[in-house]
Each structure stands twice: as structure tokens, then as C-alpha cells.
Amino acid sequence: MSALLTPADRQPRCLWCAASADYIAYHDSEWGFPVDDDRRLFEKLSLEGFQSGLSWRTILTKRENFRAAFAGFDFNRVARFTEAEVERLLQDEGIVRHRGKIEAVINNAARAQALVREAGSLAAYVWSFDPKGDDIPYLASTSSVSVAMSKDLKKRGWAFVGPTTVHAFMQAMGLINDHAEGCVIRARVQRAREAFRRPG
């Protein structure tokens, strides 16, 4: 079975983005491009946690609602959320109303603050796990680097950061170029990765 989709513009893309136009837009402009912005990194880790047991399309269609609910994923603000905020979020029909996942984002915000104090930025910490050319099978669900980051985050008190969640985060944030061979975006991502200055 081909790993590629050829939509109306006749440009081959990864097959997984066939579900909808918003998937194609996400695939073309975000997925796999390297990110060093702390807020975006925290957002993605949080949303990957919410995705657990669900599809990314479900989360993507609610992303703006999540951003509004969680103060734009400013972890310095989210870390100050109280139980009243948890109860408010549990009533918010625009997001996934799962107490454990909501509480995990608030917990992880405080853990992110601690990482910034230690590493200088969340980006510096995340990119310290850059695979640096390690051979990771195409569209694997985990990797040695995602297992390592997951273990380290859990040791630091983070929640909903299993190896599969972390691997998906790494694919999305550009640590791994998992665009299929022949995908029109693969070379663009590779050029972006080569030009990217690793933080830290």
C-alpha cells in the first residue's frame, strides 16, 4: 500500500493527511518543521496528552478552544490554575473534558517552569533529545529517544507523557522527519531541520 496521497493539486503527500482539508494544512505548514518556541512546545506536549485514546483530528478541530481554555498554553499562567479552574474546564464543551488530562496540564506547567530554571528554556531541554541521525523506522510509534525523554519527564513529575505520546510530539515538532519518501513536504522539512539552530 502506498504511503502517499495525491490530492487535487497533484502534489504527493503523506497518506495520513487524507482525512480532511485541515489535516492537509497542518501537514503542509506545521508537522515536522522544527520548533524552538517554549509555548508551542508546551502546547503540543499538552495536546498530545489530550489525544491519548483519541484521534489527532479530534484535538486539531478543538485546538483554538484549548488555547482559549488554557491561557494560550502560557505555562507560567497555567501553573497558577486552581481547583476552581479545573471545575471550569470540566464544564467547557469546547475541549476534551477529562479531569486527569486537565490536571496533568496544570501539573506539567509547574514542571515546565522547573525545567526552564534548570535548562534555560523548554526548547533547550527538548532538543537535548535530538536523535542526531539515529535510524528510526518510518512512522514508528516509539523510539529510543522518546523512551528516554518519557522516562526523564516522568522522573521529573510530568504526567501523560508516555513514550508513544512523546514520539508523536517529536515527529510534530521536527526532531524526527517522518514525512514519507516522495512527499512534497519531506524535502522542505529536511531543509528546515538543516538550517535550524539547536537551542541550548
The structural domain count equals: 1
Q: How many strand segments?
A: 2
User: CATH homologous superfamily, by name?
Assistant: Hypothetical protein, domain 2
What's the number of helices? Answer: 11
Low-confidence stretches: none
What is the CA-based Rg, rounded? 17 Å
CATH topology: Endonuclease III, domain 1
Beta-strand residue percentage: under 5%
- Content-based structural category: mainly alpha
Outline the biggest β-sheet. Answer: 2 strands, antiparallel
The first-level CATH class is given as: Mainly Alpha
Taking the alpha carbons of the first and last residues, their distance comes to 41 Å
- CATH architect. name: Orthogonal Bundle
Order of helices and strands: EEHHHHHHHHHHH
Q: What is the overall pLDDT average?
A: 94
Major sheet: arrangement of strands: 1-2
Give the helix level as a range of percent. 40-55%
Shape: globular
